Amino acid sequence: MNNNLGRKLASLAMALVFSGSVVAQEPITPIEPVKEINLAKVELGKKLFFDPRLSKSGFISCNSCHNLSMGGTDNLKTSIGHNWQQGPINSPTVLNSSMNVAQFWDGRAADLKEQAGGPIANPGEMAFTHTLAIDVLESIPEYVTEFTQVFGPDCINIDQVTEAIAEFEKTLVTPNSRFDQWLLGNADAITKHELAGYKLFKESGCVACHMGPAVGGTSFHKMGLVAPYETKNEAQGLAGVTGQDADRFKFKVPTLRNVELTYPYFHDGEAATLTEAVDIMGRLQLARKFEESELDQIVAFLNTLTGDQPSFALPMLPPSTDKTPRPTPFE
Amino acid sequence: MNNNLGRKLASLAMALVFSGSVVAQEPITPIEPVKEINLAKVELGKKLFFDPRLSKSGFISCNSCHNLSMGGTDNLKTSIGHNWQQGPINSPTVLNSSMNVAQFWDGRAADLKEQAGGPIANPGEMAFTHTLAIDVLESIPEYVTEFTQVFGPDCINIDQVTEAIAEFEKTLVTPNSRFDQWLLGNADAITKHELAGYKLFKESGCVACHMGPAVGGTSFHKMGLVAPYETKNEAQGLAGVTGQDADRFKFKVPTLRNVELTYPYFHDGEAATLTEAVDIMGRLQLARKFEESELDQIVAFLNTLTGDQPSFALPMLPPSTDKTPRPTPFE
Questions:
Q1: Structure pTM?
Q2: Do A75 and B261 touch (CB under 8 A)?
């Protein structure tokens, strides 16, 4: 037996002991607490996540569209970008995004670090350049000190910026939902109605895609599997990355953690309510028309997936200096 | 002697004892800690301050332009409003704004409560209506419960909304700056260079307007007193409120507390740096051309006015329900 497998079996055995074996039997597993985090890097990344000076306008930060007061989303169909441009796709939640197999709806970024650089330089989002963002950070002594502490005395570069943001984002997990409490052995943590919803969620096949600790995020599937999904949204999904026609309309299965908070739903944000979203998923992905009482049950279950939201003090951003390039929102 | 005067004299006597009489001799006084605050109202107001659902777009909150990570301002010349409209005037800091004699640059709101309703319904800012904002809040059970706890079981109304926001804003004071530590008797809290700046600030007449605990905020004065201020900004100042031609270009003297954080400066935001702002103030208000070394001293003094920034956990906003009217950013 190799060491790696041995370690995995050992943790599985411990999980069984810890949970009274409930965990191992379910396709959804509890969110694990964050481990092995570089706290100084997290604190730097937190500031960067909230800093609108990474945008051309000085007005848009990561938190604008992944608002951590609102489930890590903007609760808009598609986002508002620089100069009030309408974004092409719904902002996915940043919560638990470290568990995603890849980032963005079409998976075009391998990980959080790669993702974080995208919006900064996207002309429709923050509309800046990596070079200009670094110029801003280099002009602020408190940032220079913090980057030096975390990354050493080299000049600040975009790799460090995205690495710090990704490290902060790794902390944005939401353990301790009522459903996780149930998974971990507290039978009273969810109601019979909610449990019935979970059983239906499993039996009807939702768990084929929405499984694991994030209840999704681990695979790509076609939107409109058994019947076509009608939308005016032009996103092509995975095909835009692979160039394969077979990948058209394949999107990353979104996490259902905190789905109560992350409305509206789907890549085009066209499902305003969770009931509507579950109804459409049933018909288009599973060829099943859920009855109203069934929708109620499933939605009740989904609402048990709201976990502890990240809790931290609003970060204070170090002030610009006389040398800091000023934002140009109206140019 | 009436009771009120008696109380005032008693606290003055206590202040003298407490501070070794330093306080009473200086035109600038320390920021006092917040007292007599309704904590439940503060917590409600904090959520409302951060809630973009008070805007038509669902994207702009009070915190967008009075960003508490950035000195209670947006650090832009003039703000970005709904549909990326360019605002007419620089966003004043919300920090210590409870000490202002009136709100807005032209003083058109008597107090924080009156001010708070303005941006929500201003078509160039949050572009909503008070009625629609109340509809949103009434549709969210957690808000309804919180309003009931704070204000009783009546329907939510805009007076309650603005009163809660104002109560939160009253907590946004920034005590304990190095200058306040000096005022309170710690002679080592500021350097000789900074103290020289303060002496110059007093002797040259800056304190005629920038005095009291907020180092400003208590009077209206003409921008361009001894020489005209050149600007393309169309704001008329107090004249727009009083209708008096004599009040043209009279603006509320801004607080200099945390001025290190609240760049750019003046009602038009045209002074990018503090050095530039002090130079212009000297020439246009005091008929005095400060030398470079004098500007250095005054700016060094002004940077001692940065106090403890409000520290609190990022508020979690209660989610919308299926009945909540959705934002319409692009209509």
A1: 0.93
A2: no
